[in-house]
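Re: the 135-residue chain
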Amino acid sequence: MTGDIIFVIAVLVALSVLYMFGRRHKPVVKESIGEIQPKQTDHGTECCGKHAVCEKQKLAEARMRQAQYFDDEELDRFTGRQADEYDDDEVEEFRYVMYTMQTDEVREWLECIQARNIELPDQLKEEAYSILNGQ
């Protein structure tokens, strides 16, 4: 009987931990004042065949969108910093955020940090593009 109670408690704790990690980086839309809406363009539904170019274009267009936060407000202190100016600990902060979210949210997160004028560290760009291309 004691073993059953311990098992039930362990399962509840495990589910609670999984629930908390699942909520860690869900997007939270925050209102911004004076945002300029991007010009709507029709790129069609098919890819142009230049995947890296398409991805970079989508990320560039994201600068004009309203900022979303993925529970990563701590990264706001890097606003305006150049991509090659991060130290190893700062790169690890970005890496932690990127790998604790769902892989299908990475594209939105990259758009989000770009809209907030935060450059992804150079050391993580290849990893990010690999995640995007793996989707």
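Residues 2-23 form the longest helix (22 residues).
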